[in-house]
Amino acid sequence: MTGSEAAPSFRLAYVPGVTPAKWVKTWNERLPGIPLTLVQVPAAEAPGVLRAGEADAGLVRLPVDRTFFSAIPLYTETSVVVVPKDHLITAADEVSLADLADEVLFHPLDDVFDWDAPPGEPASERPATTADAVELVAANVGLLVVPQSLARLYHRRDLTYRPVVDAPQSSVALSWPEEATTDLVEDFIGIVRGRTVNSTRGRTAEKPADAERKRSDQGGSRQSAGGKTPARSSGKPAARTARTRTGGGKPAKRGKPRRKS
Question: Whose CB among 85, 155, 199, 211 lies 3.0–4.6 Å from 195's, allowing a Cys bridge?
Fold first, then answer.
């Protein structure tokens, strides 16, 4: 490597609520010589970060622009309503949007849901962030519907949440610019899809091992074939085998039998 060449590295953007730890651990085990740098970004800014090349791939919330990005959906989250612990809603195991119709619901500017019409009574103003909205819920001035991971991320001891069965849901995906599908991106794709080291696609590093395995297999075949060559070169054993199969070990008689006088 010359002085002008940068050491290989991989930058992974991720949005609030996503926990990439298990995939990072697998990366470090498989590719210890290539550092993985995590870049946390707000959900709305993730596409811009990837477009600008500030990260190689990202764990983002769908939808994304599929004319520019490739995306592999990973999972869909349960939607929940965040409420004070003493709220009446906590008496139920789950609720519907109709149950929230008379409640003030916050709709923060960074809301990850694409509501056709936000449910509940509108608040006097929209909080700037989900974190701000959670603080307002704690102040007993309204409720908030979010993906469950965000309810956990901004958890407070005086708040709890309940699933909302008919609310929109947020899906998380691995996404990257389609024209920038590098070998390292392919490596991370293999990790999130649960591929083993030997099944990971597109890695040059695996080819020598594959070639060595093929040479070993071919060598074994030649040795086996060589072991059979002496048996094929001897005509007598083959003839005995033929007689055993067809005549019970006795040679076949030739010509017509003589008549008795």
Answer: 199
Question: Mapping DSSP to helix (H, G, I), strand (E, B) and coil, where does residue 104 land?
Answer: strand
Q: Tokens 């609030």 appear where?
A: 16
Return the amino acid letter for 136: L
243: CB partners within 8 A, 6+ apart: 249, 250, 251
Asked if 33 and 187 count as a contact pair (C-beta separation under 8 A), the reply is no
Name, in order, each residue with C-beta under 8 angstroms of 17's C-beta and a sequence gap of 6 or more. 77, 147, 149, 150, 152, 153, 172
Report yes or no: 148 and 64 within 8 Å, Cβ to Cβ. Answer: no
Closest CA to 181 of 75, 35, 69: 69
pLDDT digit string (tens) for 38-88?
999 999 999 999 999 999 999 999 999 999 999 999 999 999 999 999 999
β-partners of residue 72 are: 174
Secondary structure letter of residue 201 according to DSSP = S
66 CB-near residues (< 8 Å, 6+ apart): none
231: its two tokens = 């048996």
| Nearest residue to 173 via CA among 74, 105, 50 | 74
User: What's the pTM?
Assistant: 0.74
* For the chain, counts of helices (H) and of strands (E): 7, 10
Task: Give the residue among 171, 161, 172, 163 at the shortest CA–CA distance from 79.
Answer: 163
What is the DSSP code (8-state) at residue 20?
Answer: -
User: Residue 121: CA atoms inside 13 Å, Cβ hemisphere, count?
Assistant: 8
Could you tell me how far CA 176 lies from the centroid of its own chain? 13
State how far the Cα of 175 lies from the Cα of 32, in Å rounded to an integer. 23
